[in-house]
């Protein structure tokens, strides 16, 4: 199971890759939504979501110490629970990448709508979204060079914008905006639990992405040691950044945060007017575009890898052109991303992403439990507390599932059934 290929990424490289994989559009667009649900407790909500994601990430750290192959959750499921489990987890993994691509396109146009009023028209919004998807799909037919360059620029943009926002905004916080008070809809135990679960099920989106990091394990130096340690540091760093952004946004906007669709940009406008808002919008647009480009590149590769590496999908999905691009998977990805954009708004896509992420998390956690007696590489990460943390992680996911809407759950069931049909048909005709 060990890979002998020379590793390329250092510990710092893994850390930066993880930050880029996790930090996307959510932190720019969702602070107002979770403030609407939980008020001042939204800061605590982010910290709690970070702890929850951290506990889940620890399970990935354990499994990455046992399997250095790229693929992450579906590789773990395939080895531990068999072919069908690996297929369904991989199938949902591809959907997760596609939904994320759709959400980032919607986020990009939402940000640009502040400077391009025509984007408030839904028909124009959807038409431009589809055009962007087609352009991304076309670019992916001709290799990866552009994606790599834009990805680096996007990483710098998002980190720079957030650091500037936190660093300057912190000193302009209005203390009375951070006064402790319990929202009216949280003053009973059931109300508190209900609002908290709603907020957590949304804000958890900003922590998804760490599960993609083990996919790059083959490119890392000593992944059994470096990847687990990097996962821990990445989750701590991201949680603190998000909590700081939420605190500054509340401190600058107060109750107006609820009405804001671009909270970070509107908060910066308090200090620097339209120029400040434009600065944030440009920075976040570059950042979001980078995530979208990376998503348009990664999703077809994930589908193709399922077809080529372990033949979990029909081989047609793994076909590549002369530029080594998985062209069939590319076409399918763009079509499904377009349909998702037309099917619902940003919050709906965020909730779908969280649900699809859970399908990655649960088998990984169960794999940790099942392989708890398997030997680890000397010096590799060992889960503290024995089986306590995996059990807590499963309870956390169960709690967050209670806040998912019936529509989102039905989508999840539908994706599972479609995957089941593809799996059965492929197995029948490949004999």
Tell me about this structure.
It is a multi-pass membrane protein. Keywords: Cell membrane, Membrane, Transmembrane, Transmembrane helix. It is found in: Cell membrane. It comes from Weissella muntiaci. The chain crosses the membrane at residues 12-34, 40-62, 92-117, 123-143, 155-173, 199-218, 230-253, 278-301, 322-342, 348-369, 381-402, 408-425. Helix content is 70%, strand content 0%. Helix 4 (42-64) packs across helix 13 (346-370). It contains 15 helices and no strands. The two termini are 27 Å apart. It is an all-alpha fold and 431 residues long. The chain is globular and about 65 Å long. 52% of the residues are buried. The model is unreliable at 1-7 (pLDDT under 50). The protein has one domain (11-429): Up-down Bundle (Amino acid/polyamine transporter I), CATH 1.20.1740.10.
Task: Note the topology.
Layout: H1 11-22, H2 26-29, H3 31-38, H4 42-64, H5 73-81, H6 83-112, H7 122-140, H8 145-169, H9 189-203, H10 223-253, H11 263-308, H12 327-343, H13 346-370, H14 388-401, H15 406-429
Helix pairs in contact: 1-10, 3-9, 4-9, 4-10, 4-13, 4-14, 5-6, 5-13, 6-11, 6-12, 6-13, 6-15, 7-12, 8-10, 8-11, 10-11, 11-12, 13-14, 13-15
CATH topology: the name is Amino acid/polyamine transporter I
Report the CATH superfamily: Amino acid/polyamine transporter I
Largest sheet: none
Q: Average pLDDT value? A: 84
Helical segment tally?
A: 15
Number of strands: 0
Low-confidence stretches: 1-7
Which architecture does the CATH hierarchy give at level 2? Up-down Bundle
Task: Tell me roughly what share of residues is in helical segments.
Answer: over 70%
Q: Shape, please?
A: globular
Briefly, what CATH class?
A: Mainly Alpha
The helix-strand sequence is HHHHHHHHHHHHHHH
Strand content: under 5%
Backbone structural class: mainly alpha
First-last Cα distance = 27 Å
Provide the number of structural domains: 1
Overall radius of gyration: 21 Å
Subcellular location: Cell membrane
Protein name: Amino acid permease
GO molecular function, one term: transmembrane transporter activity
Membrane topology: Multi-pass membrane protein
